[in-house]
Amino acid sequence: MRAKTYSAWEYSIIGCSINNENHNNYISVEEKCFDELCTYAKSEEGSNIFRFVKRGNYLQVQNYVGTIQTKSNYRIDILPKIYPYYDKKYAKKVLVDLLKLLYKIPNYKTTKANLEATNIPLLEIIIEIFTVEIHKLIRRGILSDYISIEEISVHLRGKLKISNQIKRDMQFKGHFNIVHDDYNQNRVENKILKSTLKYLLGVSQSHKVKKSLNIALEHFTMVNYSTNIKMDLKLCQVQKRGMKHYMSALSLAKIFLEHKSLSSFSGSTSSISLLYPMEKLFENYVGWYLLHTENNILSIEGNNEQHNFIKHEKTNKSLLKIRPDFIVKKEDRVIIADAKWKIIKSNNGENKGFSEKDLYQLFAYGGFFAQKYENIELRLYYPKTNENQIEEIYTYIDGKQLRVIFLEMG
Fold first, then answer.
1. Residues 6 or more apart from 86 whose CB is under 8 A from it?
2. In the 8-state DSSP scheme, what is residue 257?
3. pLDDT digits (tens, 9 = 90+) for 124-180
4. Helix (H) or strand (E) holding 62
5. How many domains does the chain have?
6. Which pLDDT belongs to residue 125?
7. 162, 226, 356, 386: which could form a disulfide with 195 (CB 3.0–4.6 Å)?
8. What is the mean pLDDT of the chain?
């Protein structure tokens, strides 16, 4: 059965009632689809994605975007709520671009048909991106490596396993229990890619995409399927010399294989969940933006180091730690910045949506990092919510300035 696809937004209300169908923020789905989403929402994973509202009669999407497919083959595409609101084509394009940045997929051009036809499921677009990357890899060449093989052979080569030879000598007289290296394509990275191709053939419902997957699969005939995906993913060595053309395809393979089933959707029908916290995608986008728009950058430190802000006098234990999203060191100054995925309706100094917590947070950054660096600049990044929104500058009580920058997501 072909999957039925619904499109929702961050914070959309989902139900099976048709009374609210004219409301942009309400999505009406079939009763069976709603029941399966409710089952998912009650699970540990699903409780982060949905919450029950209006006495448990409806579900509300949280700030996650991506796609989810239920046991009965219903698909829900959750799109980012960005300006201009409720433009599905634009929102889907932005989401695909954000995922390209997240998985470092260079120079990928989504086909116009996919971006212009809003009824093309997001999952099919992501699978198509994977097929493009896998065919690029095939053109560059599928790598081989020396693979250790243990077997019983009539020919003695490699290393004889003496202990096993003694045990099996009565059973296999005239044979040798040996270990030897064979140069072939059966390395873990290729096993992962072949397993992903097979899995996606059962998920995709696009004839064009399935044809592309089958063509790619023909190039992996000398490769076995992975028998332990979790272990093989850990053994992948994409940082090794000569593996650069594997990085994008393996990044995508990892998300498919790690998210290919939902524990609450057990059954014979394929299920898949590819969901991302929108604040993380926006933070990744701001990092890319800083890297490509700032001049004379010496280094960019991401959200990875906590700094003790206040400690107990006697025990010296930290009571509060601070960790800015970005510390950008330049030749003339250091930029301390946070990225916040929030809808800010302010303009010309009017406060309509700023969080006190965000402002206090940047004030704390200013006090702390002024002791470490001579010249600092404080910034807050928000998504742009209307075409008239411009950069704003605020001054704290200690004289430090805060730049509030609204980024267009297109």
1. 9, 24
2. H
3. 888 988 999 999 999 999 988 877 777 666 666 667 666 665 666 555 565 766 676
4. none
5. 3
6. 87
7. 226
8. 82
Residues of the domain holding 343: 294-407
**Does a structural domain hold residue 287?**
no
Same domain as 262, residue 173: no
Question: What's the farthest any 2 CA atoms get from each other in the chain?
Answer: 89
Closest CA relative to residue 122, chosen from 183, 67, 60: 67
Give dist(CA 54, CA 75) in Å, integer.
24
Element containing residue 341 per DSSP (H, E): none
In angstroms, rounded to a whole number, what is the distance separating the alpha carbons of residues 24 and 22?
A: 6
Per-residue pLDDT band at 113 (split at 50, 70, 90): very low
Contact 158, 240 (CB under 8 A): no
Rounded distance between C-alpha atoms, residue 8 and residue 86, angstroms: 9
Residues 353-393 pLDDT 10s: 788 899 999 999 999 999 999 899 999 999 988 877 888 89
Residue 133 sits in the same domain as residue 258: yes
CA distance 273 to 14: 17
The sign one gets for the Cα dihedral 387, 365, 10, 95 is positive
The pTM of the full predicted model, rounded to 2 decimals, is: 0.80
> What pLDDT does residue 100 have?
85
Residue 378 phi/psi, 5-degree rounding, is: -100, 135
CB 330 within 8 A of CB 293: no
Residue % of the chain over a pLDDT of 70: 81
Number of H helices, E strands in the chain: 12, 19
Cis peptide before 324 (omega within 30 of 0): no
Give the residues across from 381 on adjacent strands: 339, 405
